[in-house]
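Issue 218. Parser rejects a valid record. Input:
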Amino acid sequence: MKCFLCHRFSFKAICDCCLKWIKITPKIREIDGFKIYSFFSYDDSSMILHSKYSTLGSRLIRILTIKAANYFKDSYESSLLENVYGVGIDDKPKHSFSHTAIIAHTFYQILGIKPLYSALHAKNTIQYAGKTLEFRKNNPRHFQWIHKKKPPFVILYDDLITTGTTILEAKNVLQKNNIQAIFGITLANSS
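Output the parser choked on:
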């Protein structure tokens, strides 16, 4: 097997040397009073994030998420998250897996944040990659809460924050369902 990044022989999808190269650069972005934590710069992690469209993507997203979740565990008081659930934004499987479900599951394994799968889905399946803020505002995702459980507090998960329109739209749908999103977590930040 080869390392996905350097193509050298490795028993892991990303070798230890390349994984060290991907630096944690934590950011807290606040949009309309809502905090979104991210861990990697888009430039350092874009190749891995784009892998979500490939078969190997599930393994690569998980490796990046493990690194992020361990950092978050060391820097955030996890006892504050006891009655909080994790919700992946639009966690419908694409290419045989859901990258946001992988993020939710990994944060559960490392921090104990209980995931709710298939809870928040978009009716509009349009792709936002490479689109302008104006396009994103004119083409909302039309999220809907479809899970029977309605926990009082959740954390929203996504792979990347660019303009923040997706995560804010998801947060607003939760509010309409009497669910408070306390903050968001994304792997990377494009700003």
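Fixed in the parser; the record now loads. Strands lie at 27-31, 34-41, 85-88, 114-116, 120-122, 143-145, 153-161, 180-189.
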